[in-house]
Amino acid sequence: MKFKLSLPLIKSLSLHLAFGVLIFAGMDFKLPQKTPEMASSQPVIEAVAVDSNAVDEQIKRIEDQKKSKQKAEEDRIAELERRANEAERKRKQQEQEAVEIEQRTKRQREERKQAEQAAIAARKKQEQEKAKAKAAEAERKRKELERKKAEEQARKAKEAREKEEKALKEAQRKKAEAAEKARQERALQDQLEAEQAVRQQRRSKQVLTEVQKYQALIHQAIQRQLIVDNSMRGKSCQLNIRLASSGLVIQVKELGGDPILCRAAKSAVFKAGTLPVSKEADVYEKLRDINLTVEPDL
C-alpha cells in the first residue's frame, strides 16, 4: 500500500526536521568532571556552542506561522457559526409566521361557521314565510330583502371558505419551506461539528508534538546539570517532576532506578531550577506532572 503525503504535511515534517537539527546543533553538552582515572583513560571531547539566537528566531518564525494558520481557522469557524445562527433566526421567524396564519385561519373558520349558521336560520325563516298564505306587498318586500341578505351571507361564507383554503395552502407551503430550512440548518450544523472535530484532532497532534519537543528540552536541561562517573555507566533512574506554569521545579520524586544516579539526577533537576515549558495551556497541562528516565551519556 502506498501513502501519499500532502504538501502541508511535508512542509510540517520539514520544519520539524529543521528544528530538530537546530536544537541538536545548539545543545551544550557538559563533560563529566574529570577523575584521575578518567583523565588517563578517556579522550577529551571539545564542544562547540552554536548561537542560540538563530535557534530562537527559527522557533519564533515557526510559532508565528502556526498562530497565523490557527487564526485563519478560527475566523472560518466563526463565520460558519454566524451563518448557522442567522439561519436559526430565520427559521424561528418563519415558524412564528406559520403560527399566526393558523390562528387567523381558525378565526376565519369560526366566522364562516357563524355565517353559515346565520344563512341556515335565514333560509328557515324564509321557508316559514312561504308556508303562509299570500302576504301583503310589504311583507313580500321584507322577505325579498331577507333572501338577498341570506344570499349575500352565503356568498361571503363561500369567499371566506375559499380564502381559508388559500390561507391553508399558503401555510402548508411555508411549513414545507421551514422544514427545508431546518434540514439545511441541520446540514450546516453537521458540517460545523465535523470541522470542529477535525480542528480538535489537528490540535491534539500539535499538542503531542509540542509535548515531545519540550520533553526533549527538559531532558537536555537535566543532562547539562548531571554530574556522572564511570560507575553509573549503563544505569538509569526514573523521576517524577512537577512544574509550575513558569517551568519552576516544584517537586521531584524517585520512581525507581540506581540510587546513586537518582541522587545525581535529582540534584541536576534542582540545580536547573527552571525547566523549559510551553506557554500554551493545553501543552503545559501535559508537562506539569511528567515522568522521565535519566541515563548518563557515557
The shape, in one word, is rod-shaped
Question: Helix proportion of residues, in percent?
Answer: over 70%
What separation lies between the terminal Cα atoms? 42 Å
In the CATH hierarchy, the third-tier topology of the domain at 226-298 is known as Fusion Protein Consisting Of Minor Coat Protein, Glycine Rich Linker, Tola, And A His Tag, Chain: A, Domain 2
Query: Which whole number gives the mean pLDDT?
Result: 80
CATH architecture of the domain at 226-298: 2-Layer Sandwich
State the assembly state of the protein chains.
single chain
Radius of gyration: 43 Å
Summed up, the helix count is 6
SS-derived structural category:
mainly alpha
What percentage of the residues does DSSP assign to strands (E)? 5-15%
Kindly list the characteristics that best describe this protein.
single chain; mainly alpha; Fusion Protein Consisting Of Minor Coat Protein, Glycine Rich Linker, Tola, And A His Tag, Chain: A, Domain 2; 3 strands; 72% helix
Please give a structural write-up.
The radius of gyration is 43 Å and the shape is rod-shaped. It is mainly alpha-helical. It contains 6 helices and 3 strands, in the order ααααββααβ. Helix 1 (7-26) packs antiparallel against helix 3 (52-131) and helix 4 (137-225) crosses helix 6 (281-287). It has a domain at 226-298: Fusion Protein Consisting Of Minor Coat Protein, Glycine Rich Linker, Tola, And A His Tag, Chain: A, Domain 2 (2-Layer Sandwich), CATH 3.30.1150. Strands 2-1-3 form a 3-stranded antiparallel beta sheet.
